[in-house]
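Database export, one record per block. Field names are fixed; values are copied verbatim from the stored entry.
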Amino acid sequence: MEENTKKNLPLIALGVVAVVLAGALYWVWSSNNKLVSQLNEEKADLTEQFESLRNDFDTLSRDYDSINAQLDSSKEEVNQLIERLKQTQARDRAQIRKYEKELGTLRSIMRNYIVQIDSLNTLNKKLTADAAAARREAEVSKAKSEQLAQQVDNLTGKVATGSVIKARGLVIQPYDSSDKINERSSRVKRMLVSLTLIENELANRGPVRVYIRVKDPEGVLLTNSSSRTFTCGGQTLQASASREVDYQGSEVDLSIYLNDIPAYVKGIYTCEAYTSQTKLGSAEVMLR
């Protein structure tokens, strides 16, 4: 019995060794599986962080050309790192750690972009506010300028209106061959129109021509060889007679004769007086 036992000792020892080795192998296999599982989780988590960072790059403002190219370059770098990370074995811990460092660097770059964009936004808001203020000031200045221009136009209009020469005392009288007033149509040889240009300090000084238009009872304008045309208010008119006087802002009395009319008939004759600026007035006379 003892002899058999002695013979089996090597077998027993081998069995013990086998059991120990089997236990060791199981422990190593279990530990390795646990490590691989842990590394795969780290890889998956790192991949998720890279993808989250890529999404963050996508959400950054694209309103500024000065950093758009940089954003595109950084986003492309993230895409390449994600692809390389997916192809990297989880057991390659050194490479995984390298990607972790690059992730930290890219996050720092991301924060720098955020600071730049915030600064640009702040500057843009200030510039927008300054531009709005400048537009308001320009609008106020424009309104004041337009108001001033309107005032100038009004004053200019008032001055222009005030500078027009006016008249008073317009009368028309018939004269016979003895140079006496005579209202018998058969005796009338000429008409005399009298009026006074009134004082006006705003009026232009110098020669002024006064035109008269005399119409017979049928409304026919009386003219002779010395009649001329003139323009008033943009309208061209025919004058029966006219006379030029020197106007210096003071009152001027003047008379205009209408001669060389072949004959006069009974009825009411009308007379209108003009300058090139305006109508001075009208008057009537009845011939018997």
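Remark 1: The first helix runs from residue 2 to 59.
Remark 2: The helical segments are 2-59, 65-87, 93-162.
End of record.
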